[in-house]
Amino acid sequence: MEKFFRSNNFARILAIFMAIILWLFVTGDEITRTTPARQTWQDVPLRAENLDQDYVITDMPSSVDLALEGLPENFEDLAIHELDAFVDLSDKGSSSHLVRVQGRSPRGLSVVAYEPEQVRVVIEEYLSDNYPVEIELVGEPAEGWQLVDYTIEPEEVMVGAPESIFEQVARVMAIIDLSGMKYVERVEPELAAYDEEETPVPNLLIEPETVTVRVEFEREEEPEDEEEDEEDENDE
Length: 236
What we know:
Elements: H1 2-5, H2 8-34, E1 37-49, E2 55-59, E3 63-70, H3 72-75, E4 84-88, E5 95-100, E6 102-104, E7 110-115, E8 118-138, E9 145-153, E10 156-162, H4 163-166, E11 171-177, E12 184-187, E13 192-194, E14 205-207, E15 212-219, H5 224-235
Parallel strand pairs: 1-4, 8-11
Antiparallel strand pairs: 1-3, 2-8, 3-7, 4-6, 5-8, 8-10, 9-15, 10-14, 11-13, 12-15
């Protein structure tokens, strides 16, 4: 046996064996590189296309999952921002719509599946109008001072929101705390919208967000009876 291992035949057999192993390794690697692979990407951002400018989306999933297929080399260094998933909202008006998810394939890959394949999208008309600015005064001016007048600039602001929110708006108001104020003060309070029950209405646009309010004060006059008492004391 030792003589066989030292013979030329053993060397030839070993060389052939190593060549076969190398061939299988190279062939297997080539097969791997040329055989299509499939990968699933989760939480791919979902966007909308072709929505009419008079409408807004009030409810839609933020992301979907995509299953991609292609050669392994095309998956290398692929980033999620290169993936595209969208819904086409052409001719879609105020309602709840079940819409098919679509996408565009990146660099040699193909999208083979979406999860979910369809999503529900709620669309509402966007409404806007001008509202007068109302002021609610709280607190007391500095001692010995009283409020004379105030002016608002601008006196009206624009309110915009989806229809279901816009219909709740009854008034637009700013609250001003007069505590410690005297002479003339200028304040820029933030505005808020309220419904009929004086509950704030959120998720709407108020433009501008603040107004300038000029508040004017004057000294309070002393009561007449106190003035007469002082005169009587002086006469005595």
